[in-house]
Design brief:
Elements (H helix, E strand, L loop, with lengths): L14 E6 L7 H15 L3 E4 L5 H7 L47 H11 L3 E6 L1 H17 L5 E5 L15 H21 L3 E6 L6 H9 L4 E3 L9 H17 L4 E6 L13 H18 L13 E5 L11 H19 L5 E6 L2 E6 H14 L11 H8 L11
Parallel strand pairs: 1-2, 1-3, 3-4, 4-9, 5-7, 5-8, 6-7
Antiparallel strand pairs: 9-10
Helix pairs in contact: 1-9, 2-3, 4-10, 5-6, 7-8
The structure holds 6-O-phosphono-beta-D-fructofuranose.
Length: 401
């Protein structure tokens, strides 16, 4: 795909589109707000919100929607009464544009490209995770082949935090906070009943959400696909031994975080891997206790409970970190367009916002897909993993004793 950035800002008024694709997460609307503010205040452009991802282009083509309906004004959506002018988009979670995470837009590439053309867009900002970025990139290729217009930049968003090249994606921090809060809330009921609380956390094939919230939430064990891809007997035994040690030390309850991407002992995906894990812990601890070895004598009354946090992890008002990231990403996306620097994804690296060619991102995604792993993964030697290990969290390794 050819993309030659213009050397200076092209000051001609532009018409840009913005859409959200894939699963929602907190912070999407804050990106929209920032884009609208920078595009309209700084450049005097028009911004159009495309409803339900690329489906919105098809609706436009079929005249199911009128372009003027899609125009987003500076303050997002007008709110009547005393709160008129409230910058509501900054705080709202979900996507006011709607989003779609199923279907295959490639099958409707022609209609989507025609819809883009019909709206007369100069450029499009896409907020998406790995899957959406890959799909939209295929559309961009198709446009290139057909000589159709399709200028785009991507903004990474996902609570899984698994988009390559960016250290963090929009929505992740809020999700980490939710899980951390849930662990805190579970601590006292766990302690009151001497229970082992297993908490199943989202993240698809990546363990970032489980690892960061597990450390922040004071958990005793964190199981992530990068370190414990399957719950084999060794891992279960390790957890039970860890729980036993904790009990001898006086901590009679335990918090175990398991990422949804961890698989059962046969390497199969379980919808409720938390339940599976709790059963395994229950059974194995009885077995260990039955050996009569004194170190396991405290395991006989282990009582497990499971919490699957589910879509609560995608809700709530975005944290300040997510609002800041969303705002900085939104601004950068507009700046890329102003400079004619298309086919780029904005990223956060080393404390600042920049961008990388989408082709690089897509390359990494394709490699990961072949290997059936997350495109960005928790590195086994990362500071996160070392931190967890060194403070005594069980991460699938024997801690001795
Ligand atoms: O990718 C975000 C995510 O929330 C994953 O963590 C989770 O596995 C998946 O989406 C859930 O998807 P759905 O909303 O379709 O159930």
């Amino acid at each position: 795909m050819t993309n030659t950035p213009t050397s200076t800002n092209d000051r001609k008024p532009k018409r840009i589109g913005i859409l959200t694709s894939g699963g929602d997460c907190p912070g999407l609307n804050a990106v929209i707000r920032a884009v609208v503010k920078v595009a309209t205040n700084k450049y005097g452009w028009e911004v159009y919100g495309i409803p339900y991802g690329t489906d919105g282009f098809i609706d436009l083509l079929l005249n199911k929607r009128h372009p003027e309906e899609l125009r987003i004004k500076e303050h997002g959506y007008d709110i009547p009464g005393l709160v008129q002018g409230l910058d509501i988009l900054h705080f709202l979670s979900g996507s006011v544009l709607g989003s779609v995470n199923k279907g295959n837009p490639s099958q409707h590439a022609d209609e989507i490209l025609q819809g883009y053309e019909k709206l007369g867009l100069n450029a499009l900002i896409v907020m998406g995770g790995d899957g959406s970025i890959e799909i939209l990139n295929n559309l961009a290729r198709k446009a290139d082949e057909l000589g159709k217009p399709w200028n785009w930049v991507a903004v990474p968003k996902t609570i899984d935090n698994d988009v390559p090249y960016t250290e963090v994606s929009v929505g992740f921090d809020t999700a980490v906070n939710h899980v951390t809060q849930a662990l805190y809330d579970l601590t006292f009921t766990a302690a009151s009943h001497d229970r082992v609380m297993v908490v199943q956390v989202m993240g698809r094939d990546a363990g970032y959400l489980a690892m960061e919230s597990g450390i922040a939430g004071c958990s005793d064990a964190i199981l992530i696909p990068e370190l414990t891809p399957i719950l084999d007997e060794n891992t279960i035994e390790g957890i039970c031994q860890h729980i036993s040690q904790l009990r001898w030390q006086g901590r009679r309850f335990a918090l175990i975080v398991v990422a949804e991407g961890v698989k059962n002992h046969l390497g199969q995906k379980e919808h409720y891997i938390g339940d599976y894990l709790a059963n395994q812990i229950q059974e194995y601890s009885s077995k260990l206790c039955g050996t009569g070895q004194p170190e396991y004598s405290n395991l006989d009354k282990i009582d497990t409970r499971v919490t699957t946090l589910g879509h609560l992890q995608r809700g709530g008002t975005p944290t300040s970190t997510d609002r800041l990231l969303a705002t900085a990403f939104g601004r950068e996306a507009v700046e890329l367009i102003a400079n004619g620097n298309y086919n780029q994804m904005v990223i956060w690296q080393n404390g600042r916002v920049s961008s990388v060619p989408i082709s690089h991102v897509v390359e990494q995604i394709a490699i990961a897909r072949k290997q059936k792993i997350a495109p960005s993964r928790v590195e086994p030697h990362s500071f996160l993993v070392c931190t967890a290990r060194d403070i005594g969290i069980y991460i699938g390794e024997r801690t001795g004793g």
